[in-house]
Amino acid sequence: MKWHSIGEFIAxxxxxxxxxxxxxxAAALIALEVILVxxxxxxxxxxxxxxDPARVKN
Amino acid sequence: xxxxxxxxxxxxxxSFYPLAGRMAxxxxxxxxxxxxxxxxxxxxxxxxDFQQGEVYxxxxxxxxxxxxSMFLYVVMAFWAGVGLAFxxxxxxxxxxxxxxxxxxxxxxxxxxxxxxxxxxxxAWWVWDARLTSELILLFLYFGFISxxxxxxxxxxxxxxxxxxxxxxxxxxxxxxxxxQWWNTLHQGASVSLTRSPSMATTxxxxxxxxxxxxxxxxxxxxxxxVRAIVLEREHHADWVxxxxxxxx
Lengths: 58, 248
What we know:
The complex is a heterodimer. Chain A is 72% helix and 0% strand. The radius of gyration of chain A is 22 Å and the shape is rod-shaped. Chain A has helices at residues 6-11, 16-51. Chain B is built from 8 helices and no strands. In chain B, helix 3 packs antiparallel against helix 7 and helix 4 (129-150) runs antiparallel to helix 5 (154-168).
């Protein structure tokens, strides 16, 4: 293992801000996209149920 | 006699919808596993770069997202073009489903590039051929999405979007070859099919695994989005009305 402490890992040789800001935004946006696509699909399904309540049972 | 799968069957929204629903969780799972493994290699196995130090570790999301941004644009233009030529409903829905994920990848590439540029070049942004053409790619995605959103009739929206997507496809080779055609600040390709890579093997492996993870993730997100689009657009169709709750 090349890192000797958690502090050294977070510091990233003095470039911690640049490295972690890149990864943090990528992770946040991907998580947001997952939530948004799942919600969009759920909303589309809900609209079908509301348009035809009888169908929910089958 | 060998049984033959009728792949064309899946060209209809009706048969593709349940198939996409069955496939999406597997792609999400593959993306999660590959990301875990890829990040482990990126941060714990790959060595420190002798020139740039630790900041180079941005490469493990920068290059995969930049590759995906270009690749997804070609996929989007392809489906949009097929939809325009053959009037197939699912093709146009696929094009619309790809666009937001492509824009996301473009944004991640630009953002991580800015955070890499500042410590290595001394500037967040330069109007360099590579950076400018990638920014144009982001605007092409935004243009496609907003053009489709602005037109009420989905069939007309598909056609207008397809024309934009196909015209914009010329930008993709410009991005790719920009570092060769112009004298740019952006470094040349680290990985090429014609010569051996200019990076340590573990760096390459980390980058390729992260690229595969981004690939799996993009497929998963696009499959869920295309399912939503199918229901939104086909809610009057008989097959949607008879869809059992388990299949939805």
